Amino acid sequence: xxxxxxxxxxxxxxxxxxxxxxxxxxxxxxxxxxxxxxxxxxxxxxxxxxxxxxxxxxxxxxxxxxxxxxxxxxxxxxxxxxxxxxxxxxxxxxxxxxxxxxxxxxxxxxxxxxxxxxxxxxxxxxxxxxxxxxxxxxxxxxxxxxxxxxxxxxxxxxxxxxxxxxxxxxxxxxxxxxxxxxxxxxxxxxxxxxxxxxxxxxxxxxxxxxxxxxxxxxxxxxxxxxxxxxxxxxxxxxxxxxxxxxxxxxxxxxxxxxxxxxxxxxxxxxxxxxxxxxxxxxxxxxxxxxxxxxxxxxxxxxxxxxxxxxxxxxxxxxxxxxxxxxxxxxxxxxxxxxxxxxxxxxxxxxxxxxxxxxxxxxxxxxxxxxxxxxx
Length: 375
Hints:
Elements: E1 13-17, H1 22-32, E2 36-41, E3 61-65, H2 73-82, E4 86-89, H3 95-98, H4 103-109, E5 114-119, H5 134-140, H6 160-185, E6 189-194, H7 195-202, H8 204-211, E7 232-235, E8 241-244, H9 249-259, H10 274-285, H11 290-297, E9 304-306, H12 317-322, E10 325-328, E11 331-334, H13 358-364
Parallel strand pairs: 1-2, 1-4, 2-3, 4-5, 5-6
Antiparallel strand pairs: 7-8, 8-9, 10-11
Helix pairs in contact: 1-6, 5-6, 5-7, 6-7
C-alpha cells in the first residue's frame, strides 16, 4: 500500500477480528485517524450486522475473509498479526484462545503487538462469561440510574454511553497508550477494555460530587441531570424542543432577559422555588415555535440551542461551516474527529465489503496465504 499521509496514525497496522458494537467502532476511529485497518470478516457475517454497504463503522478499512473455524484460518490471521501493531477483538473471554488467535500465541508470534480486548464485563470476574449488552453494563455501574426523570424508568441513551463512550473510546486510548510503550520499549501487551470499567470511570466527577454532598443519589434532582430548571429541555409551541444550560450567573441573566423573565423569575438560588421557576420557563417556551426561539437566542451567550433531529443536524449553519458531517458515496455521516493541523483526517473510503480487499491486503502486507485460490 502506498505511503500516503492521511492522518496521524499513517503507517500503523491494525488487525480487527470482526464483531459488533464497540469493537468495530474503535477500529473505525483508528482507521479514521489514518491506520491501515484490516478487518477479518467471517463467512456469513456478524449476528446483528446491518447491510455492509451502509455500515459506516467499517469505513476507511479494508476487509479480508477468513474462517477461523476452518483449518488454516488461524494461521492466516497469525500471518497478519506478525506484521501488525495492534489487534482488536471483541469475543467473550476464552473464545479467541479457542480459535487459536488468543494473546499468548499472538504475542509469541509478534512480541511488540498490542492486543486489544473489548468486552462488556471484562476478562475476569463473576460475570465475565455472561452475555450482556450496553444497557446491562451501564445499569450495573450506576450510570443508567442517573439518566431520566425521577418518577419514570431510567432513559436509555441509545448505546452511546456504554458501547461507545465507556467501551470504544477507552479501548482506543488504551491501545494507543500501549503502542507508545511498545515503540519505546519493544514490549507488547494485552489491553483489557471492559465497558463496565469505562462506564464507571465516566462518572468520576459525579462520584466526587456525591461524596461531597453535592449530588443526590437519585436521578432528576441534580444540577446536571435535568433536576435543575436552567439545565434541561423545554417544549415549544410547535411540539419541538429547546435545550437550556446557562449555569453561570452572567449567562443566566442573558437567558432570562431574552426569555422575558428578567424581572419576574423566582430566585434561581432558592432550591425550594425550582419547581416554580421551571413552570415559568416552560410556560414562556410554549408561547413560540422552535424556529422563533432559535432566532431570539441567536448570537447570545444564553447557552440555548434547538434540539435537532439526526437528519436536521447536518444542515445547521455552524456544523455545515465546520463540515462536521460529510457525504461520501452518497451517505451523509459524521466526519472523523478530532482534527489535526499537520496530519488531517478524512473519510477516504466507504464501508468495507466483506472479503473485497483480500488480494490487495495479501500483496500490501506480504501475506501470500491470504490470496484467493485461483481455482
